[in-house]
Amino acid sequence: MNVGIIGCGAVGIKRSTSIGKNNLKAVSDIEIKKAYSIANTNNKIKVFSDWHDLLELQDIDIVIVSTTNNMLAPIALETIKCGKHILIEKPCATNVKEIQTLIKAQRQNNVKVCPGYNHRFHPAILKAKEIVESTDIGNLLYIRGRYGTGGRLGYEKEWRANPVISGGGQLIDQGVHLIDLSRWFLGEFIKVNGSIHTYFWDMPVEDNAFLHLETEKEQVAHLHSSCTEWKNTFLFEITGERGTLKIEGLGGSYGTEKLTYYRMRPGMGPPETTIWEYPFPDNSFELELSEFVNSIKNDTEPECNLHDALETMKIVEQIYKINTTRGKT
Prior knowledge:
Elements: E1 2-6, H1 10-16, E2 23-28, H2 32-39, E3 46-48, H3 51-55, E4 62-65, H4 69-81, E5 85-89, H5 96-109, E6 113-116, H6 123-133, E7 140-148, H7 163-166, H8 170-186, E8 191-197, E9 208-214, E10 220-226, E11 233-240, E12 243-248, E13 257-263, E14 272-278, H9 284-298, H10 306-322
Parallel strand pairs: 1-2, 1-4, 2-3, 4-5, 5-6, 7-10
Antiparallel strand pairs: 7-11, 8-9, 9-10, 11-12, 12-13, 13-14
Helix pairs in contact: 4-5, 5-10, 8-10
């Protein structure tokens, strides 16, 4: 399929290198140099500073939107109205109302929409999902997740620290990945609680978010998203009646991706331990796009859809509503 990318920053670049067998036909960014940084390897790729011009191209099948959060929903809405399929970077919007508007437009225009929750396609997470669905681990009891970075010099001046552009801080940035994965494994949460704090960075949004989510079956997800992790960290543990799955790392600065399965023995005691390591480069973006293309060709729902994005954003909004004070005072 022919692909266009709107938003050519760090994520847009990653998306451009993960097109796979599809054809990158056009790119757009308000900073035209960023667009050219993607297109300079292929003079057949069209370059635009105005994203509206990209949407006018008739031969574009899929548009990938990887802009700042405040522009995700407006661009996605126009893309849907143009009748083009769209992969929209997480969190898809800055609030629930924007995602509800996208859902309504999608129904009216009969296109496929895939939220960019690429963590579902990391190999350790896919393997954990396979084990859970095999029922080998038994009924799930709870999840513990920790995800964070240490930021960088000037982090408090970047767009992620501006609530008008970002919609919030660490919760809506990396925290949404933890929420999405927890929903994927446990289902919907009927009890939502948590707190947000700004401990270190001098900015009007949170640098730490602590969540306690509970399903109707009383399964719990205990999550912590932080940009005061001085060593980039990803840890996601899934515990069932007969074992625990421990996922560590995402590759790169997060360390080698690894899944450890601690399987309970009949007599209990020390568990049977199996470890899978995935030292190769992250290909989750490519797997995600491939799954989306297949859903378009087969006219099926993508693995992750706007309902998932909506339910995740509802939890984000609930946490922000509980915590009326944001930012360092």
